[in-house]
Specification:
2 domains; single chain; about 20% strand; Phosphorylase Kinase, domain 1; 11 helices; globular; about 325 residues
Length: about 325
């Protein structure tokens, strides 16, 4: 049940039993905030006890992070997207955490989402530091195919924005790439790419993603935004939900989740499996897929440059996979 009116907490101490009771539609006797993690957003697990009808013993709560992170998400149009999806969006036809409540405070650039703790039903969070297996990626692509097929060229809520990176982004993106490439060289990981080339490819991909049949995208399906439950791979962290081309999610998920060797050996078969599940045969599917890595590479170079959104080891592992996929595509664009 989504609560229509809920104040956005200013601090974790504001997650009182009364607030959580309103969010969950239950009478909460006690609440304890644990496992607070600060990244792009601030996240915590909240343990609960009830009076009367019981609810979930734990929930996962996500709220705004530091001001710099909030401003970055605002520039991307992503600050309130997940909360809007929870409160006003359509049902999602793929494995994802159940949503309980959401609220936004646009004056404070703040938002909060209360959702299921998937570990209560055996969910195991995935990580870029432990690449997914080919079977897991095939399962995740099947879930994405269900999402994309359901919203293929369908009307979407007004808060779902299309991919768009206009010319104003060029100097900002290029400065980020210059800084990221310099940091990588100092860390002993030179890419052999120039900032201008990356910036052109990064913005160029956004134009491609906004062309052709449009559907609802997760937008940021790297392994750290996924979990495994049984043989199924689910997706959380929907703050970059977008409308766009199916191939954005597919290329981003596939390249970021597999080892370089597994991707090279299985990407054609995995793409074919996704298209079978989608039930459509988009024109030039392989060629479009081969053009996707530059956006993932650019995104994670910007993340590396910022230095506050993801841990360095996660950034480096993900950049390595996207860089290899980008180099492969440059040698053989299909």
């Amino acid at each position: 049940m989504i609560t229509p009116v809920l104040a956005v907490p200013r601090d974790w101490s504001d997650l009182t039993p009364m607030w959580l009771g309103a969010a969950l539609g239950r009478t909460v006797a006690r609440a304890r905030v644990t496992d607070v993690v600060d990244g792009t957003n601030s996240r915590a697990v909240v343990e609960l006890e009830y009076v009367g009808p019981a609810g979930p013993p734990r929930v996962f709560v996500k709220r705004e992070g530091r001001w710099l992170n909030r401003l970055a998400l605002t520039a991307l149009g992503a600050r309130e997207a997940e909360a809007d999806l929870v409160a006003r969006g359509p049902a999602l036809p793929l494995e994802h955490p159940a949503f309980h409540a959401a609220a936004t405070d646009r004056r404070r650039l703040a938002a909060v989402v209360v959702m299921e703790d998937v570990t209560l039903r055996g969910g195991r969070p995935n990580s870029a530091l432990a690449p997914l297996t080919v079977e897991q990626v095939a399962a995740g692509l099947g879930e994405l195919a269900r999402l994309h097929a359901r919203f293929w060229d369908a009307p979407l809520p007004s808060f779902v924005r299309p991919w768009r990176l206009g010319p104003a982004w060029a100097p900002v993106a290029r400065a980020g790439f210059v800084h990221a490439l310099r940091k990588l060289r100092r860390a002993g990981h030179p890419l052999g790419l120039g900032a201008a080339e990356l910036e052109r490819g990064f913005r160029g991909w956004a134009r491609i993603a906004a062309a052709g049949p449009q559907t609802l995208l997760h937008g940021d399906p790297h392994p750290g935004n996924t979990y495994t439950v049984g043989a199924t791979v689910g997706f959380y962290d929907w703050q970059l939900v977008r409308s766009g081309s199916w191939v954005h999610d597919v290329g981003y998920f596939l390249a970021s989740s597999l080892t370089v060797a597994d991707r090279r050996a299985h990407e054609r078969a995995l793409l074919a499996g996704y298209l079978d599940a989608l039930g459509r045969r988009p024109a030039d599917a392989w060629r479009l897929y081969r053009r996707t890595p530059v956006f993932g590479l650019g995104s994670w170079l910007q993340t590396w440059a910022a230095g506050t959104f993801q841990p360095p080891d996660i950034c480096l592992a993900t950049i390595e996979r996207f860089a290899a996929a980008h180099h492969d595509a440059r040698r053989d664009p299909g």
